[in-house]
Amino acid sequence: MPVHPAQPFHPSATLRRRARLLLLASLAAGPVAAQHAHAPGADTPAPPPSVEIPLEAQARAGLAQARVEATAHGQALDCTGVALVDLLRQAGAMPDAPLRGGAQLGRRVEVVARDGYRVTFSLGELDPSLGNRQVFLVDRCDGQPLDAAAGPLRLVVPEDSRPARGIRQIERITVLSP
Fold it and tell me: For the segment 84-135, what is each residue's pLDDT rounded down to a tens digit?
């Protein structure tokens, strides 16, 4: 841009002019929201507001058993149970297909212990195609059923740095929608 001797050069005036031009150009381009829609497709039904997951042995009987090794409070755990994602899918609380859209990705799993301790996972965190967080609902450790201090059910989250979400004495698992 040429500098005229009658008008001193002011960088801030030039920047303001450029900002105005960019603003006008963006307004002329139309709304940006139309370029990226988050609405679920017609084939994605709205999830129910909440789903209570059955915890009885017969609800887990048909699911694949997994061996899970982890450490909790310095103690090695060698447990067996089912993948939480399999239990959620069997209960109809999580689709078999990869999660899509805000309706599914905003949902969360709340796990509550007998003493009121609770932990939460997002469905996206558990979905094998997204977060792929491995979480297991176990009923046996070291070849024995869990005792009253740990059971009858507990979560084991082997990838967590601390066992804070390895909740014991599970009383309820609920999938909640926003």
Answer: 999 999 999 999 899 887 778 889 999 999 999 999 999 999 999 999 999 9
Region for 66 from its dihedrals, namely left if φ exceeds 0, alpha if ψ lies in -120 to 50, beta otherwise: beta
Let me know the angle formed at the C-alpha of 21 by 17 and 23, rounded to the nearest 5 degrees: 115
Burial profile 4-18: b = 16 or more Cβ within 10 angstroms, e = fewer = eeeeeeeeeeeeeee
> Residue 64 — φ and ψ, nearest 5°?
-65, 135
Its pTM surpasses 0.70: yes
CB-based burial label for 40 (10 Å; 0-12, 13-18, 19+): middle
User: Torsions phi, psi of 118, nearest 5?
Assistant: -140, 150
- CA angle 114/70/126 to nearest 5° reads 70
CB 139 within 8 A of CB 81: yes
- Give the whole-angstrom CA distance, residue 176 versus residue 178: 7
| Residue-wise pLDDT tens digits, 14-71 | 556 665 655 555 555 555 444 445 444 445 566 668 999 999 999 999 999 999 998 8
Question: Which amino acid is it at 129?
Answer: S
